[in-house]
Amino acid sequence: MLKLDIDLFTKKETTELDDSFNASGLSSRASQAITGAFLTIGVALALFYLDVPRVALTATLVLYAVVFTAEKLSYVRSLVTSRSVVRKLVRRIEALEGLSQTPDNAQPSRRTSLVAPA
Fold first, then answer.
1. What angle, 0 to 180 degrees and rounded to 10, lies between the N-to-C axes of helices 23-49 and 54-97?
2. How confident is the model at residue 113 (pLDDT cuts 50, 70, 90)?
3. How many C-beta atoms surround the C-beta of residue 104 within 10 A?
4. What is the pLDDT of residues 12-61, one digit of tens each?
């Protein structure tokens, strides 16, 4: 890619693009989320079986819900950023091929019937 292409992206999009080629970082993030979920559920079950006050059990479950929600919001932000990167890459390819740009809310895969310029 040229510097011109990279300059089209925001800082978040550039990070997302770079991270998409880092497979080890992706699996590390997923394993951290799974470990955190199991650890929280384990603590909640231990508190339940140890017959601790219900306030502690409720606080643990609320903490789990907050962490789970934060993970989901992070995932959604990542998904939105990935779609933005794809949209910009498609438009850059269309510009290089001399085609008209796909408008927002369109379906570029249905435009494949266009003949590539010679």
1. 160
2. low
3. 6
4. 888 887 777 776 655 666 777 788 888 888 888 888 888 888 888 888 88
Taking alpha carbons only, the member of 80, 111, 75, 73 closest to residue 93 is: 111
- Residue 98 Ramachandran class (φ > 0 left, ψ -120 to 50 alpha, else beta): left
Which residues touch 43 (CB under 8 Å, ≥6 apart)? 60
Q: In this structure, how many other beta carbons lie within 10 angstroms of the beta carbon of residue 17?
A: 18
| 65-95 pLDDT, tens digit each | 888 888 888 888 888 888 888 888 888 888 8
CB 81 within 8 A of CB 12: yes
What DSSP state is assigned to residue 10? -
DSSP assignments along 46-115, one per residue: HHHHTT--HHHHHHHHHHHHHHHHHHHHHHHHHHHHHHHHHHHHHHHHHHHHTPPPPPTT--GGGGTTSP
Distance CA(35)–CA(89), nearest Å, equals 35
